[in-house]
Structure formats: structure tokens, C-alpha cells
Amino acid sequence: MAPRVTLKDIANATGLSISSVSLALRGDRRFPVETLTRVQQAARSLGYIYNQAAADLRTSRNNTVAVCLGELSNPIFNDMLITAEKEIDRRGKRLLLGISRESRQRQADFLKQALQIGCEALLICPAYETTKKDLEDILCHEGKLIVPTCLFFRAVEGFSSPQVVADEYESGRLAARAAIEAGHRTVYWLGGGHGTSPARLRLQGALDELAGCGLQPAGIIPGATSRAFGFEAATGILEERQSGEVAFLCFSDLIALGVLSACRAKGREVGVEVSVIGCDDMDEVKYAIPPLTTVHIDLDQIVAAAMKAALEGGQPQITAYKPEIVIRSTLCGLSPLASPPSAQSR
After folding, report:
1. What is the pTM of this model?
2. Are residues 41 and 102 both part of a single domain?
3. Contact, 210 vs 180, CB < 8 A?
4. Three-state SS across 113-140?
5. Residue 291 has pLDDT above 70, yes or no
6. Does 56 have pLDDT greater than 80?
7. Which of 156, 258, 286, 335 is the most buried (most CB within 10 A)?
8. Which residues contact 66 (CB under 8 A, 6 or more apart)?
9. Is residue 1 part of a domain?
10. Are 117 and 98 in contact (CB under 8 A)?
């Protein structure tokens, strides 16, 4: 971990006093423009982060953990927030919450703010399309993290910090395996395509599992993680396929809930000829009508491990926890495929 750069470091680099450096960084007009420029350039070169807290907190921790999430209209992020808040409270810390709304610019603005405030640690669920460079430009100096940081739920390839996620390839594989073992030959994938590790890996796991049984998806339809998308996508498919078995593998439970509504609107009985399988196992889906078959992602375990890695030190590596399939009423009991290959045999 790179040591935090102080005003003294800038003073040594510029030949000025610490008090002069402090004033110059605030743009004090009593200094010539050349001096202000020299101090600011030295600060940037050294990787100094201006701390808006009191001077005695500039080089110490302030007991605040910053958590950056995606979009609170998606209940999965509310579940993350509840778990994170409990973990932070248990450790006697304070929470600083940022909502990126899946915008890399909003994410960057929040991370800069968190650094300026002097947060003790950062937990980040990266926004759509976040790259290694996006994070390094803000959080690293000379290849080292400025503040302890852990990514969770979504991974960013090549970023050198602890990253705690679910085994999302296995999530997709489990969903497809459930449909195959129920006997489905007409399988659609709905959702994803957002440039995140779960979107890529869930789809790839499902495709590989289908291919292992000699099946191809009837369609892959990327789209928003929302009930509205699930409803619209499933409605279009059910209008084309007005009878016969079909399975919907949904990137998220939220999409799956929209699919259930579409099935009801089209008079198709879920669990009889139509299967719907979600992913995440949000708290509400066990109360859906009918209760949703889904892939359980242990958010409590992921968030707790991410908090531990950020606050107590963790290796810069990806830790992936195994998901589990949860069979409920939205899975059909059709005749299974003849001798489908098992996961162990491939």
C-alpha cells in the first residue's frame, strides 16, 4: 500500500514551507501564478489527494468506509446496501454511500470525493463498462493503491486489489442445467450485455452447458435489468410461440419477475409448459406467484469477505464463492432429455 502523500512531501519538493504549500493549494492569490502552478504540479506528480477534513486527519483514518453501488431501483443493490451497512456498523465504522447509476463518470466523481474526505477504505461494485484504467487513474499512484480498496459482486480484469464475487460462470451453468434436466429443448437467454463480469460469465456458462448437451439457445436477447424488459421480451416470444414448451433463463431475478407477468398475461402456465429461472435469489422472489426457481448468490458472504479484505488487508486477487440452484415452482417437470451428460462427465 502506497503511503499517503502529505503537505510536507510537497514542501520538500518545492522548497516552500508547509503552511505556504497549504495556502497555495487553496489558490491563495497572495502567491504569484508561477508559484501556484509549481505547487499544483508537484502535488499532481506526487499523487497528493487534498483532504477536506481537519488538518489532524490529513494523514490518518477517519473511521469512514465508502461504498459505491449501481442503481437502487434494482433491489439487489438494496440487499447489498443493507448487508454492507450491517457489516460497517458491526465494526464501529461510518458509511459514506455513493450511487453510480451505472455511470462511470458518477462513479469517478464519488471515488474522488471519498478520497478527499479521507475514507479509511473503499468498497466498489463497479459501474457498467468500468475498466482497469478507470480505477487506476483515481485510486493508484505509482502502481499502488492510495487507500485500501476491494471490488465486490463485479470484477474488473487486471485491477490490482482484492475482488470478491460469485462464480458467475457456474451461475449460468446451473440455470441451464436446471432447464436441461427438466427436459427443455427450447431455451431463451434474457438480459445482460452490460459490460460487467456477471453479464459475460453467466451467459457463457449457460451457453457452454447447453452446447454440452448438443443444444443451442433459441434466442439471446440482451437488455435492461428490469421487470419491464423481462415482460416485453417474454411477451414477444410467447406471441410467436403460442404453444409448446419453452424455458426462459434470466440474467437476474428482476427480469424473471417480468417474465412471470408476461406468462400470466398470455395465459401460459408457468411450471407446466413454461419454465422461468432467475439469478441472485433476491429476498422477494420466494414470494412470487409462483415462487421463482433461481440461482442463489450469497451476498452476505460476499459483502462480509469484501469488508474484511478492505479493512484488514487482502491479497490482490479474485475470490469467487460458489452459487447454488434453488428449485421452486417455476420449473417444469417435463420428460428429461435422453441421457444428458452430467457436469462431472464433461
Report:
1. 0.80
2. no
3. yes
4. HHHHHCCCEEEECCCCCCCHHHHHHHHE
5. yes
6. no
7. 258
8. 96, 97, 98, 110, 111, 114, 117, 119, 121, 122, 123
9. no
10. no
In this prediction, residues 306-319 reach a mean pLDDT of 92
State residue 51's pLDDT score: 62
Q: Which residue type sits at 116?
A: Q
Query: What SS3 state is found at 226?
Result: coil
C-alpha neighbours within 13 Å on the C-beta side of residue 16: 20
Question: What CATH number does residue 224 fall under?
Answer: 3.40.50.2300
Same domain, 154 and 196: no
Number of domains in the chain: 3
What confidence score (pLDDT) does residue 345 get? 34
More confident residue, 60 or 97: 97
Please tell me whether residues 190 and 336 are part of one structural domain.
yes
Q: What is the pLDDT of residues 80-106, one digit of tens each?
A: 999 999 999 998 899 999 999 999 999
Answer yes or no: do 29 and 69 share one domain: no
pLDDT band at 334 (very low <50, low <70, confident <90, very high): low
Decide: 161 and 316 in contact? Cβ < 8 Å: yes
Closest CA to 154 of 238, 215, 262, 80: 80
Q: Please say whether the beta carbons of 124 and 111 come within 8 A.
A: yes
pLDDT at 72: 87
Please state the rounded mean pLDDT for residues 114-119.
Answer: 90
Q: Are residues 267 and 185 in the same domain?
A: yes
- Please report which helix (H) or strand (E) contains residue 10, including its range: helix 7-14
Q: Would you say residue 335 has pLDDT above 70?
A: no
Distances (CA, A) of 253 to 84, 280, 295, 319: 21, 6, 9, 23
Distance CA 53, CA 69 (A): 24
| Residue ranges making up the domain that contains 253 | 168-297+325-345
Encode 13-37: b = buried (16+ Cβ within 10 Å), e = exposed: bbebeeebbbbbbeeeeebeeebbe
* Of 54 and 20, the one with more pLDDT: 20
Within-domain flag for 113: yes
Spatial CB neighbours of 54, under 8 Å, sequence gap ≥ 6: none
Instruction: Let me know whether 77 and 104 are in one domain.
Output: yes
For residue 280, the SS3 value is strand
